[in-house]
Amino acid sequence: MVRPMPTLLSSSAPSAAAPASPWALAGAGALFSFLWASAFIAGKIGLAVCGPLTLLSLRFLAVGGGLALGLWCTGRGGRVSGQAVLAGLLCNAVYLGLAYTGMTQVPAALTAIIVCTTPLLVVALGVLQGRERLGRRAGFGLALAFGAVLMIMGQRLHLQSLAPWALGLIVAGTLALAVGTRLNQGVAAREDPWQVACAQLLASGLVLLPLAWATEGLQVHWGGAFWGSLLYQAGPVSLGTTLILLWLVRQGGASRASSFHLLSPFFSIALAVGLLGERLYPLDLLGLLPLVLGMALVLRRPAQAVR
What is the pLDDT of residue 169? Predict the structure, then answer.
């Protein structure tokens, strides 16, 4: 019988285990995608009462500190590699720091659409590094998906007069996320996920805290909106998605794990329209069709490893 996810996230170091079933991968991936998409909604609410770097630094320190206390109390402390810390900084501090700053001027739904190109970037990095081969079908899918994103971004720029610099920050953050996901592939295979998550989140919070102090003065309008946004992002989003992503990467590799971003635009658009009242444009839906088709062509089968 396949070992369930909680067993894989045990106190011991990672060891060889039977591959997870397709149902387990699908369920974990769908949950990861929903939590990931909902983070943009919770973040948008938090940004109304708090600066982006302040919100993120407090979020990372809260969940990282809680994890550190829990590990210390259970005698599970340990060291993690520099690669794990670097991957965490890219996936948390750099990616979210840039994306949340850009999201102050960009709708949450559009931010999610841009970020959902992460699996394409992960595959592209693998090809550039010589670790994967990309056939004609996948190459066409890559071009189709990126073209769809450019179409959606272009019509948003035209209709909403969005700030190009804000979109640029989100794109740069997405690139950082793709690089961090690649680095996490080696980390997930050999290090304890709880210790990795703790180190990654604490490091990200400590890096962003002085930046938040210098640029935003750590100013917060205390209230239900702030606490609700912070607690949701600290628990289900930060801790939940970090552990699920490490498990998915360990089970199926970086490319397959990141492919679950396919579902994020649908969740994000539905939540943004339903909860935030954001406007939905016809080209948003039309653009999602070639986007998902292109991603499916790239990720239909795992890319062929060459080394």
Answer: 93
Backbone angles phi, psi at 257, to 5 degrees: -60, -45
3-state SS of the chain is CCCCHHHHCCCCCCCCCCCCCHHHHHHHHHHHHHHHHHHHHHHHHHHCCECHHHHHHHHHHHHHHHHHHHHHHCCCCCCCCHHHHHHHHHHHHHHHHHHHHHHCCCCHHHHHHHHCCHHHHHHHHHHHCCCEECCHHHHHHHHHHHHHHHHHHHHHHHHHCCCHHHHHHHHHHHHHHHHHHHHHHHHHHHCCHHHHHHHHHHHHHHHHHHHHHHHHCCCECCCHHHHHHHHHHHHHHHHHHHHHHHHHHHHHHHHHHHHHHHHHHHHHHHHHHHHHCCCCCHHHHHHHHHHHHHHHHHHCCCCEECC
pLDDT for the residue numbered 134: 64
Instruction: Output the CA–CA distances (angstroms, integers) from residue 253 to 249, 256, 259, 263, in the order listed.
Output: 4, 6, 10, 18
What pTM value is reported for the model?
0.73
Q: What is the largest CA-CA distance in the chain?
A: 56
Q: Above pLDDT 70, what percent of the chain?
A: 79
Alpha carbon distance 55, 65 (integer Å): 15
Tokens of 206: 């400590």
Task: Please report the sign of the dihedral spanned by the C-alpha atoms of residue 273, residue 113, residue 170, residue 201.
Answer: positive
CA distance 205 to 262: 28
Domain boundaries, given as residue ranges, for the chain: 22-305
